[in-house]
């Protein structure tokens, strides 16, 4: 076991001895805790080489997350088809090629269809790198007509910077609602998962959907699928992290304010807790996760290990100064501790600062990115600009 470091922050964040609803927002009230060691196998074997990591430790950590937290992500399907249902080669005032693509997946003589919205920059002569947004917010935030525009998905800015902008809505695979989340993917294609205590639930279904988007990117000659990033905000950020862990085709995984069950360390019990998230959103995680309500220390994993599973690929964790429910410090600690895999196993020179970085002081290292934005829980143009800055740096490194 390794003892977590309580890093001092150099930003001003409001703290409260205890919130009115009984949740802790005071660093001084956090009890000492220990975290499962990334570099010791379940059999007690020290892990120090790439071979040991990839063939022993990584698989067993992945199985623990599948069994205890997110559930399985089934891979079997009978058929997948892609249909271009609409396109506009002069979208965004001529700057982009809009493609609306229906992705239909069949299994056991039943099928579901997911709509991909994709804008590709017209000024690029080579395949474009792409950012995919997993979104649970209103469909107006990903309006393909661009009559409604939102900084939540700033297509125009992405296109101007040479990136394709892609998005899908989680309701195509699993409604973000406890009463109807089973109606699409789970009931139609994988009903057996609903009977399993470690079966796929909402977040896993969203990750499965994002993986089907990657299946399409690999087939579109206008997209550089090897330079693809998956982005999620809040609950979408949790799904993005699980996507990046399950599917190694993604070059960058971006978690924006994903909090509990996302980037934040569960054992800190700061802001949202495992019990609260399981109570409010019982359809996100596998049934087994309920064992850890008010019992986080019994978890065989914590979220720094999720970050570690992404190595050697790139991980970006973003937070907001007023979003204490999502625990910005816990998110940073998870990134700092998890990125040890990048450094100690793969030899990537990443060394995040000891102190929590300040507001609007992004830290962009090789394959590891972080920033804290001023403001509340949201996904903003500032966030996207930092993601693009990081991707610019990453892809330049990879092309050297």
From TrEMBL:
InterPro entries: AB_hydrolase_fold, GCE-like_dom. SUPFAM superfamilies: alpha/beta-Hydrolases (SSF53474). Its EC number is 3.4.-.-. Residues 103-342 form the 4-O-methyl-glucuronoyl methylesterase-like domain. One of its GO terms (molecular function) is hydrolase activity. The lineage of its organism: Bacteria, Pseudomonadati, Bacteroidota, Cytophagia, Cytophagales. Keywords: Hydrolase, Serine esterase, Signal. Coiled coil: none annotated. This is Alpha/beta hydrolase family protein.
């Amino acid at each position: 076991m390794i003892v977590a470091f309580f890093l001092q922050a150099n930003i001003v964040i409001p703290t409260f001895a205890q919130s009115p609803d009984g949740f802790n927002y005071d660093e001084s009230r956090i009890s000492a805790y220990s975290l499962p060691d990334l570099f010791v196998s379940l059999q007690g074997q020290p892990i120090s080489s790439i071979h040991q990591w990839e063939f022993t430790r990584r698989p067993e950590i992945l199985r623990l997350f599948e069994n205890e937290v997110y559930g399985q992500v089934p891979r079997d399907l009978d058929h997948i088809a892609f249909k271009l249902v609409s396109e506009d080669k002069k979208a965004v005032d001529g700057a982009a090629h809009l493609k609306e693509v229906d992705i239909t997946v069949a299994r056991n003589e039943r099928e579901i269809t997911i709509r991909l919205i994709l804008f590709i920059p017209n000024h690029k002569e080579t395949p474009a790198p792409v950012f995919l947004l997993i979104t649970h917010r209103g469909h107006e935030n990903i309006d393909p007509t661009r009559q409604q525009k939102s900084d939540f998905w700033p297509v125009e800015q992405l296109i101007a910077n040479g990136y394709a902008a892609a998005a899908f809505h989680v309701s195509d695979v699993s409604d973000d609602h406890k009463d109807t989340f089973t109606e699409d993917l789970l009931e139609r294609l994988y009903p057996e998962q609903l009977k399993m205590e470690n079966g796929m639930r909402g977040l896993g279904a969203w990750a499965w959907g994002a993986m089907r988007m990657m299946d399409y990117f690999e087939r579109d000659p206008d997209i550089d699928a090897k330079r693809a990033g998956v982005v999620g905000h809040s609950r979408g950020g949790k799904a993005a992290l699980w996507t990046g862990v399950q599917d190694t085709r993604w070059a960058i995984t971006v978690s924006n304010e994903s909090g509990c069950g996302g980037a934040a360390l569960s054992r800190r019990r700061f802001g949202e807790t495992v019990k609260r998230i399981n109570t409010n959103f019982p359809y996100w995680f596998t049934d087994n996760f309920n064992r850890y309500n008010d019992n986080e220390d019994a978890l065989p994993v914590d979220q720094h290990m999720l970050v570690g599973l992404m190595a050697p690929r790139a991980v970006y964790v973003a937070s907001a100064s007023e979003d204490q429910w999502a625990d910005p410090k816990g998110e940073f600690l998870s990134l700092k501790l998890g990125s040890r895999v990048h450094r100690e196993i793969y030899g990537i020179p990443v060394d995040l600062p000891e102190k929590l970085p300040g507001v609007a002081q992004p830290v962009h290292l090789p394959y590891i990115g972080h920033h804290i934005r001023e403001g509340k829980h949201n996904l903003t143009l500032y966030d996207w600009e930092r993601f693009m800055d990081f991707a610019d740096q990453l892809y330049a490194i990879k092309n050297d």
